[in-house]
Amino acid sequence: MSAFVLKIIAIISMTFDHMSYLIFGEFSFMNYIGRIAFPIFAYQITEGYIHTHNLKKYFFRLFIFSLISQIPFMLFSSLLSDEISLNIFFTLLLGLGAITIYDALNKIECKNKITHISYNLIGLAGVCLFAFLANIARCDYGYFGVLIIFLFYLFRNKKLLMNATFIAMVFIYYGQRLLFSTAYIPYLLIIIFTIFPLLFINLYNHKKGKDTKYFLYIFYPLHLLIIYGLSFLQ
Question: Is this structure's pTM higher than 0.90?
Fold first, then answer.
């Protein structure tokens, strides 16, 4: 399964998620399908970091489309509530920042093991800082989004650990809500559908496939604007 196929699965899933609010006006079965999208996008950020030829351009591209997407995201979000939050590109941007900081500190040549461990701990503190920023800035998926990106990167060569830590994070993130809610079945389904994209990620063959460099960047704000426009026809 190529990167192209992964992105198409994520885009279709995301569209189902957002269209649900237009069609039903509330959470529906389509939103369960929508849980498939983010883990794939998060994984693709780690792949983008590893394979990019120009990290500065990668950061710049994410930042620019974070800004471009914010107004369409706010318009779409206004269909659901009056709360202001930041779109998913900001989450992906902070996740990219987290793995960049961690990786830079981890690669510093050290004369002894204690110094190396110290740099690792500073790097982990940096990751936690980016996760905290995602939460206080009200980015989509908050701290969970940044930590998932980091864990996908950290255990990229250890699939069993990657799968196990991802599943654990999903249970931590949604499990806390499950404890304080009577809606057990909906949250259990959310957990299952959030874990489900691991199947696609583990089938990934590390091949690019068709070039879709700007397709997602353009599709994300565009489809939000279209959904917002269609809401006036109801």
Answer: yes
What single-letter DSSP state applies at residue 27?
-
CA–CA distance, 45 with 51 (Å, rounded to integer): 10
Q: Does 117 have pLDDT greater than 80?
A: no
Residue owning tokens 């701290």: 143
| Beta-bridge partners for 86 | 139
Residue in the block written with tokens 């040549």 = 109
CA distance 107 to 29: 45
Q: Is 139 helix (H, G, I), strand (E, B) or coil?
A: strand
Hey, is 86 helix, strand or coil?
strand
CB 131 within 8 A of CB 186: no
DSSP secondary structure letters along 164-211: HHHHHHHHHHHHHHHHT-S-HHHHHHHHHHHHTTHHHHHT--S---S-
Task: Return the DSSP state at 182.
Answer: S
C-alpha–C-alpha distance, residues 42 and 205, integer Å: 17
Looking at 35-44, 58-67, 107-116, which range is the least confident one?
107-116
Alpha carbons within 13 A on the beta-carbon side of 28? 12
